[in-house]
Design brief:
The protein has 286 residues and is of the alpha+beta class. The protein is built from eight helices and 14 strands. Strands 1, 2, 3, 4, 5, 6, 7, 8, 9, 12, 13 and 14 form a twelve-stranded mixed sheet that branches. Strands 10-11 form a two-stranded antiparallel sheet. A hairpin with a 2-residue loop joins strand 7 (145-148) and strand 8 (151-157). It starts with 7 loop residues before the first strand and ends with a strand.
């Protein structure tokens, strides 16, 4: 769980359906793109706090999340005792001819994740010194070459993949079949290449609006939405805020952990068409 100075929970999110956390209309080819970091273009999801509050319905939700927006003007509001980060990408699923799909990640992505855990300094140092060429992929077993979607990479075996895969596989909420696949089917590529993959290999789906009078598509009502694929793995961090009294008897993080560990919630948009389902798991590496 961490120490009294900076108690926190690290929580993984396994996508059980496609995810669309939109940033609004855009003028590009995709009308409704997903949220991304400005510097890296890695996918993110903002609004974790709101999604948890809406899905979990906790008895002590005001203590954890703070006052909601139902307070009338002039009525005293209370700050929450827990702060939530945005959800960050950890593993991105990519089509593979022989294995159906594999999960791709990069050193920067994994280092960010490991820095939120305890006693991972040695593994972080290995990643910091890992040399990956632009056309190279680090894998568990050398296969000579690997084709990810339509991009060909030369493979290089490194046991660091096994170390990372073991940590992630036991800390995602999914069935054993997928956990076992995670242990063997993670690929590490260069940070720049990973950014390109996350931009080129998302799912872009056409949508139309139906005219209620005619039952047919409205004229000009066609648009395109971007989604993160099913089986994407993300994570977020929940930390005690300055408003927590730091008293061990407060149990605010313990109450939150009990509610979210192994829960399935919806996050992002398009819930009514089955999108945005994620399974949560509190990482047990603290």
């Amino acid at each position: 769980m961490g120490n009294q100075v900076s108690r926190k929970l690290v929580v993984t999110m396994y996508a059980e359906s496609q995810l669309h956390a939109g940033k609004g209309m855009d003028v590009g080819i995709v009308d409704l793109p997903i949220q991304r970091e400005r510097t890296t273009a890695f996918p993110i999801i903002q609004g974790v706090k709101g999604a948890l509050r809406a899905n979990l319905k906790l008895d002590n939700e005001e203590e954890i999340f703070g006052s909601d927006n139902t307070k009338s003007q002039g009525e005293e509001t209370k700050p929450g005792k827990v702060a939530f980060s945005e959800a960050k990408i950890l593993l991105f699923p990519v089509r593979h001819i022989e294995k159906l799909f594999v999960w791709v990640t990069s050193p920067l992505v994994v280092i960010r994740f490991l820095k939120e855990l305890e006693n991972k300094e040695e593994l972080i140092k290995k990643l910091e010194t890992l040399k990956i060429a632009e056309n190279e992929a680090i894998v568990l077993q050398d296969a000579g070459e690997i084709l990810l979607e339509d991009i060909q990479f030369k493979t290089k075996q490194d046991d660091i993949v096994k170390e990372i895969a073991e940590i992630i596989a036991k800390n995602v909420e999914t069935v054993d079949y997928i956990k076992n696949k995670l242990k063997t089917d993670i690929v590490i590529v260069d940070d720049n290449r990973f950014s390109s993959i996350c931009q080129m290999m998302t799912e872009v789906l056409p949508r139309i609006a139906i005219d209620k009078q005619t039952g047919t598509a409205k004229s000009g009502a066609l648009w395109y939405e971007e989604y993160l694929p099913q089986d994407t793995v993300m994570y977020f961090v929940a930390r005690e805020t300055m408003f927590s009294n730091k008293n061990p008897n407060d149990q605010v993080l313990e109450k939150l952990q009990k509610a979210i560990d192994r829960a399935v919630i919806t996050i992002g948009g398009k819930e009514t068409v089955g999108k945005g389902l994620v399974a949560l798991k509190v990482v047990n590496e603290q």
